[in-house]
Amino acid sequence: MYARNLSETAASRKPRMPSASGYMVAAVAAAGALFFVLWWMLQGEENPWIPAGLAATVVVLVAALARGVVMRRSWNRYMLDERRHERFDRPVTRRSPAPGRQPGFSQSEALRALEKKSTETDVSAALPEAHLKIFQLCGEFLDGAERSLTTPGLSPERRLKVRARQERVRALQKHHLLTWARNSALSLTHEAQQRARLHEKIETANRALDCIDSARQKYPEEEGLERSAAVVRDFINSSRVAHWVELAQRASFKGRYRRAIDCYRDALFYLTRAGASPEHQAAAEQITREIDLLRARLTTHKAVDSDPVTPDGENSQSQA
């Protein structure tokens, strides 16, 4: 009865997955309303749709930039609420112990079912959410075992058995939480690599960092989580560096050397934050050489532009 009431209460409080669709629909609606209002107000001007369209575009762009912050906070709340409230059906229906039977019988049955479900999840290469559910189920088992230890008249032998079961479940709990964090981070990082825009790459990669940080709150001493977080952060920095290098190359191709130098400096800034590995140092040296080359081209163009020209079309130096 207690387990059924607990599941019904948690089901009514189950959090919803955060979605950006409603947010963006509201932003587009607001931009559309602003467009028509400004268009009506500027009827006396020439081409009133131009300033109205620019204002509506600015509203959509600001909403899109703010979406990353909003979605990240919503995702964090969702993950915390799900870990706190989500419950799912137990694989084995609990039965009241028969008269004269020790209460540890149902615990043994639940432990066997939990270990079986854990093995099936590992073998089937399930989605990361399946590992998160096993982690939550382990937490429920540990809570029940802790309550059973407070039962009056529990013999020392039964107490030792309960402690042993707790250790086995804690090992399962840690395994599945780390597996969830690792697989979620890998999946989200792969998804970020497929994104075309920089802000989408960073937003998706930050979700991977959120998963890793959630596991680190439970197991802060786990070195594997720190390595996974370092890989994701390196991906974010490399994406930023590649973005600014591409902008610099485009600007240099168009002859906008000052703009290209500024973009290379931004790339160099993010590259220095990534660490002092040999690969990063080699890339930083390459960018520095590109900056020096662009400065030399800029100086040459200034010298050519400032060289006086004679009426015959020849410069004064060649005429002399």
What can you see in these coordinates?
This protein has 320 residues and is mainly alpha-helical. It has a domain at 239-304: Up-down Bundle (Methane Monooxygenase Hydroxylase, Chain G, domain 1). It is 79% helix and 0% strand. It contains 11 helices and no strands. The protein has helices spanning 2-12, 21-41, 49-85, 104-123, 128-149, 156-194, 198-218, 223-253, 257-273, 278-306, 316-319. Helix 7 (198-218) runs antiparallel to helix 8. The chain is flat, with a radius of gyration of 31 Å. The termini are far apart.
Residue fraction in strands: under 5%
Helix amount: over 70%
CATH architecture of the domain at 239-304, by name, is Up-down Bundle
Radius of gyration: 31 Å
Give the low-confidence spans: 1-14, 86-105, 309-320
Q: Classify the secondary structure makeup into a structural class.
A: mainly alpha
CATH superfamily of the domain at 239-304: Phosphotransferase system, lactose/cellobiose-type IIA subunit
The backbone outline, from C-alpha atoms, is: flat
Tell me the name of the CATH class of the domain at 239-304: Mainly Alpha
User: What fold name stands as the CATH topology of the domain at 239-304?
Assistant: Methane Monooxygenase Hydroxylase, Chain G, domain 1
Would you count the extended β strands for me?
0
Distance between the termini: 106 Å
